[in-house]
Amino acid sequence: MTLSIFQPVDFFIRIWRFSRRSVEDNIVKTVKELSLDEEIKMRENTFQFKIGVVYAVSLESVLSGHENWIYSVKWQPPVNSGSGWHQPMHLLSASMDKTMILWKPDKESGVWVEEVRVGEVGGNTLGFYGGMFSPDGLSIMAHGYQGAFHHWAFTKSKGTWEPQVTASGHFDVVCDVEWDKGGGQYLVSLSVDQTTRLHAPWKQSNGQADWYEIARPQVHGYDLQCLALINRYKFASGADEKVIRSFDAPKNFIENFCSICGISLEAELKKEEAQNRPAGASVPALGLSNKAVYSGTPPTEEHLLQNTLWPETQKLYGHGYEIFALACDTECKILASSCKASKLDFAGVIIWDTTTWNQICTLEGHNFDVTQMAFSHNGNYLLTVSRDRTLMLYRKRDENSQNGMYS
């Protein structure tokens, strides 16, 4: 006897029983419904696999629990019990309703029931496109439309399935990366997958440090193109829109960052850039407070989606087309920005004051869009390169100059 599974587009899972028969004939199978005092007739369809071997196929069970398309059903892998290989009656289904369900026959009645359900509440994913067991059946993993992994493991001491840390990263072209300005202790990356991600080393008790994504500060509606870290807990980003956006790290990020990376929280909170931090970016699903601290481990994919956003604190308007490049000086006081430009009128570089967010001046000279910029270490020079095949070096003028800040 063997069991097979089939999932149609009606959100149900059907389990079929294959049984060997000695004669090729249609047999009417009688099954007693457990919840009713009546019998249901179920027909077995037979087919000949090869000469003299006949199998009968009958519907074993219909599993109902998902609320959207089911993209994957997997049996738990066979296990070796010492006397041979044994197939556990354990089934895993993954669905676009953002959940995975473990199914198992009830020990007394034999009816297939939902043993446990794992997944997301809220978030901005499109659901799960597949799931699978680990070889020992004690871990399960799903993957979503955006390529992220979702991992749960069975904790024997608690008897529960707990979410686990997984490898994560961008699923499209990365356009910009930058180290933090407080000693290079984390890296921020930005991609046309419309997310900004922060990566840092998780320092474990054995002294080993492995790099993980510990925050997703920005999830945007446009493809992101460039970023500039203004200080350790503030950055600006540009996308396929005319607006530059500034973000500040919330206080709970500093707590999580110190806990994960083994940094003294007390010392970090005394730094000037760590003062007056907002509590969080937004209220996640079900009104839960955005104050998660991950007990010294990186956050899971579910937490990254919901609890690690940075509040947007400023929008800067001034460019006529989509933002293309950003740069900040070493003193964290000046931000330079450029946009896509097919003619001279829009090719200027705008200089911003990061304290007041006022425009200081516009640097002219290029004929097309400036594709990259960099300040000198002392902040007195700005180097720009453009699609017009030229590079220009601007020098900071004296504070009392009447001809603008740079020339």
UniProtKB/TrEMBL annotation:
Its main location: cytoplasm. Pfam families: WD40. GO terms for biological process: tRNA wobble uridine modification. It is found in: Cytoplasm; Nucleus. The keyword Cytoplasm applies. Pathway: tRNA modification; 5-methoxycarbonylmethyl-2-thiouridine-tRNA biosynthesis. InterPro entries: Elp2 (IPR037289), WD40/YVTN_repeat-like_dom_sf (IPR015943), WD40_repeat_dom_sf (IPR036322), WD40_rpt (IPR001680). WD repeats lie at residues 363-394. Gene3D superfamilies: YVTN repeat-like/Quinoprotein amine dehydrogenase. One of its GO terms (cellular component) is cytoplasm. Keywords: Cytoplasm, Nucleus, Repeat, tRNA processing, WD repeat. Belongs to the WD repeat ELP2 family. This is Elongator complex protein 2. It comes from Mytilus edulis (Blue mussel). The lineage of its organism: Eukaryota, Metazoa, Spiralia, Lophotrochozoa, Mollusca.
